[in-house]
Amino acid sequence: MHFAWNEETIAWFKAASAYTDFHRKLADRLRKTVSGAELMYDIGCGLGLLSQELAGEVGRIVGVDMNREALASLEADAAARGIGNISTMHGDCYQTEPVCDVILMSYFGSSTLEFFLPFCKQLISIVDLNEGSSMGGKGLSGSKRKRQTADKVERQLKEAGRGYTLEPVSLEFGQPFVSKPDAMRFLQVYYGSTPEETEACMARRLVQAEQAPYAYYLPYTKHMGVFRIEGGRAVCMCS
Fold first, then answer.
1. Which of 91, 99, 198, 234 is the most exposed place for a label (fewest CB within 10 A)?
2. pLDDT reading at 139 higher than 70
């Protein structure tokens, strides 16, 4: 998959989230874990859609990302929803010291968890459950990229002697489209697919959408591994 946050990809991602209610449903799995935390860092937060859903459970959230467009989207969404306890930090997360109760890392940094664990009491890492989890399926070139999957993270944690739990979670997170050209553009941007691959995928997998204003939908069940990992801080030093 070839991916970067910009106006186009932000719009697609938000549309998928709203259509499937993905981030609210995923947040429901995490509410008990983060409830009562004074401070949570969302590292590599992107649009911060999951943090927005968890904001009611946490005293304060700081979203850290290198992409200014993603952070601007998060700030605008939080303001529109009346969420006042989320702030953003632009920059390299590896140059920060995110001292807090909980660190959230969703599809980011799972190969470098050891860097962040000393700063928190608990770290939540969300990764693909296995290599087969791809919206594009097996017929698109970009779907063949190597992933940091749950088995690799689990091996890493065992080698480090970390205490953790792993919860497999499967949720619908397909992509709605207003037209077939919209779908074609999406597949080519995300997967770098050839026109022939794109046409074949659309013919095989596109279905009629069930929500206006969309005409088509690309179904996809996202299979995830949700890790809850014991951090290195016995007592949170956040103010």
1. 234
2. no
How crowded is the C-beta side of 189, counted as CA atoms within 13 Å? 16
Domain boundaries defined on the chain = 7-174+223-230
Closest of 135, 122, 146 to residue 227, by C-alpha:
122
- pLDDT beyond 50 at 195: yes
Task: Enter the pTM of the model.
Answer: 0.92
Rounded average pLDDT over 91-107: 96
Strand pairing class (60-65; 216-218): unpaired
Which helix (H) or strand (E) segment holds residue 205: the answer is: helix 195-205
Amino acid at 88: T
Could you tell me if 109 and 101 are in contact, meaning their C-beta atoms sit under 8 angstroms apart? no
Say if residue 195 is exposed, middle or buried (CB neighbours under 10 Å; 0-12, 13-18, 19+): exposed
pLDDT tens digits, residue range 25-65?
999 999 999 999 999 999 999 999 999 999 999 999 999 99
Pick the more confident residue, 141 or 167.
167
- Bridge partners, 43 (sequence order): 64
Q: Which fold has domain 7-174+223-230?
A: Rossmann fold (3.40.50)
